[in-house]
Amino acid sequence: MKDLLGYKDKICVVTGASSGMGKACAGELAVLGAKVYALDIVPPQIDGICEFVKINMGDKASIDGAFAHLPETIHKFFSFAGVSGEKTSPRETISINYLGNKYIMEEYLRERIPEQGAVMMCTSVGANRWYSETNKPELEALVHARDWEEAEKVLDIICEDLQKGNAYTYSKRALGYFTTLFACQMAGKNVRVNCLKPGNTRSGLTDEFVERYLRLHPGETIEDYHKANGLRPIAEPREMAEPAIFLNSDMASYISGAELIVDYATDAAVLSGIEKEDRWTGRKLVHTYA
Hey, which residues does 13 pair with through a beta bridge? Predict the structure, then answer.
């Protein structure tokens, strides 16, 4: 039978591989015959992976150390690592969710992903409409920072004006913006780059997202949180890992620069006017960059 996905013997790197979507993705890739390098803070419990490599996505030296242990050729890259922002400062949240990924794309993936390779960045439905007239201007300085050090200087300013609960959304908007730019840059090299935008999904961060929601919406319940975050019950990690595997597979050979929303028609209900616009997608988060 024809191998439609094309992962057999391909070198695949997965960040955030110890839990949730990243763990589900790494496990399924191993079953598909890929050579999987699992990156995270703690070792994953997954059968069939080639190697665990420790990484802190918010630390440049840690990223450099991790990539020193990885193959020079990486056929497929999957980035799931991230934090909710509830237990980290705004600077830490943005560094882990955005800056580390930007650095990896520019410093390593630009050269290590071969022709017909693919990159998948996990953003969020919370990043929907990052390109709007309200949202995009406040991302420009960080997205176009020339290097890690310049980005740190931008964060000095942004984090003075960014409330803790907003750092997650801001980081995912920035990642969506930069990943789209990177897709354009890599098109000439025949390397595909896409975003996966998960909706409400069960993970190690779920309790933290619920905690934030209840803090910001006094009097509401966990049931209200789930109603506000989807037309269907909460998704399982596998239901996000498999679309990610599709995006980086041979079956998606003409898909690049896309943002695949996996939310069971929740955003479709907003776009069609059935539901009101999400309270996050149209709201300005940083007033420094107007």
Answer: 37, 77
User: For 35-65, how does the pLDDT look when each residue is reduced to its tens digit (9 = 90+)?
Assistant: 999 999 999 999 999 999 999 999 999 999 9
Number of domains in the chain: 1
Residue type present at position 271: L
Give the pair of three-digit tokens for residue 199. Answer: 């909706």
Q: Is residue 153's pLDDT more than 60?
A: yes
Q: Identify the domain containing residue 139 by its residue range.
A: 11-271
Whether residue 79 is contained in a domain is answered as yes
Q: The domain spanning residue 180 has which CATH number?
A: 3.40.50.720
Task: Put the strands of the sheet holding 118-122 in their side by side order.
Answer: 51-54, 35-40, 11-15, 76-79, 118-122, 192-198, 259-262
Q: In sequence order, what E strands does the chain have?
A: 11-15, 35-40, 51-54, 76-79, 118-122, 192-198, 259-262
Q: What is the mean pLDDT of the chain?
A: 91
Place of tokens 């949180």: 225
To the nearest 10 degrees (0 to 180), the angle between helices 238-247 and 20-31 is 60
Contact 125, 197 (CB under 8 A): yes
Taking the whole predicted model, whether its pTM rises above 0.90 is answered as yes
